[in-house]
Structure formats: C-alpha cells, structure tokens
C-alpha cells in the first residue's frame, strides 16, 4: 500500500469535511506504475483530483485520482485511483449512475509472481 503514503498530503490540502469513520467504506483501488521502480530517495510531488461523485440516496460514492511524479524530472511514478462509499452524505440531487468500473489497464497474460493466502476465520462466538 505504499502509494497511499505520498498521496496523503495532496488530499490533506483540500477542504475537509469531517465524516465519522463508521460511515466510510473503502470500496476499491487501482494502482498504475510508471516505467521504472519507485526511487528509494528523492522528492516526489502528488496531484489529486476528484473523478466522480455519485448521489446514491442515503450515501455518496466518491472516486478520486492521485498521480505522483518525480519532482526533479517530472517523470510519472505511479497513480492511485480509489473509490469510497460514504453513508449519510447523499440526497443532494447529483448523478446516480456513473462511468462504471474504474480505469483498468491491460490485464497481465502471465502468472502471478507471488500470492498470499490467508485462511478465513470467524470471529463470532
């Protein structure tokens, strides 16, 4: 989840509306990587924008994009596109249907480099 770290200052610079954490559900996220590895040192700059806000009646579905670049060269490093479902924020008269699924690049044709399996356990008594 490294891409979330440099994107936080960009989001923090926007006007903030306090939303109780219990009302926020992270729906999905997609990462796009540049042509080279992320540098281990240096300075980056992130630019964010809201892609879409949908009025779902009792809630909103918000999609945002944060792109991160090497500050010295301007080279694209990675982007994070994410969607959040926020309860008790709808009914503002906005669009109810959006552009559909987030931007998906080419799916790989090779197998996974590695996989993590976690057994599901019930926490109910």
Description:
- With 125 residues, the chain is mainly β.
- It has a domain of 84 residues: Thiol Ester Dehydrase, Chain A.
- It is 7% helix and 37% strand.
- It is built from one helix and four strands, in the order αββββ.
- The protein has a four-stranded antiparallel beta sheet.
- β2 and β3 form a beta hairpin.
- The longest helix has 9 residues.
- The radius of gyration is 17 Å and the shape is extended.
- The N terminus is likely disordered.
Which CATH architecture of the domain at 4-87 is right?
Answer: Roll
The average pLDDT is 78
The helix-and-strand class reads mainly beta
CATH class descriptor of the domain at 4-87: Alpha Beta
| First-to-last CA distance | 32 Å
How many helical stretches? 1
Strand order of the largest sheet: 1-4-3-2
The CATH homologous superfamily of the domain at 4-87:
Hotdog Thioesterase
Shape label: extended
Helix and strand sequence:
HEEEE
- Fraction of residues in helix: under 10%
pLDDT under 50 segments (min length 5)? 1-12
Task: Tell me how many strands there are.
Answer: 4
Q: How much of the polypeptide forms β-strand, as a percent range? A: 35-45%
Biggest beta-sheet profile: 4 strands, antiparallel
What is the name of the CATH topology of the domain at 4-87? Thiol Ester Dehydrase, Chain A
> Whole-number radius of gyration?
17 Å
